[in-house]
Write a structure and sequence with these properties.
Elements lengths: L2 H10 L3 H12 L4 H13 L3 H12 L4 H11 L4 H14 L4 H12 L3 H12 L4 H13 L3 H13 L13 H17 L3 H13 L3 H15 L1
Length: 221
Amino acid sequence: MTLFRQAEDLFFKGDFEKAEPLLKQVAATGHANAASLLGTLCHDVGRRDEAIHWYRSAAEQDWVVAMVNLALLIEDDDREEAIRLMRRAAEVGDTVEPHYNLGVFLEEDGQREEAERWYREAAERVYPQARNRLADLLKRTGREAEAEAWYRRALDDHGGDLNEPSDEDYPVYTAIMFNLALLLAETDRCEEALCWYERVAERGGQEAEKEAARLRASRRA
């Protein structure tokens, strides 16, 4: 087993005390993944400045995970640099997360048109957070029909078990169901809206339960 594999194994077992010196030894040779893991280790134990140092070391080698993590870590302190890092990660990486995060950054900064483009790229690659965020943006800009189509597409083409609470995307799909129900209620399709609200309520959504009760009451009136 290589020194990095030993360090990586210790890191993922949570033995940071033993992993850290080994990771530093490997990172000193210019190993981007070791530097990135060091960044995560330092961040997890509350050593933010060290985390930034190691993430930056890996990011300078175009290590996508490090670029993403560094951008998220510094977004409030150096917005311009965070966007540059996330854009670079989206350009060189083969994962979809940077596309989504770049879209969030840009939308928060009022650059809706470019944000939408990055959301769409992520949404086309079955990323539920992007599909939800894209649909929300479309709805807020008066494109309700397309927003509805993306909500439904997310729920129909989810690539996993939509109803499995242990699935990491379970909360996202719950939010998409609620947002679809809200859109349906706002466009006077209350029967279908009620079905979705009830489904979200079954998943623990208290706000959905309130909306479902309101629709039931209005139906009886």
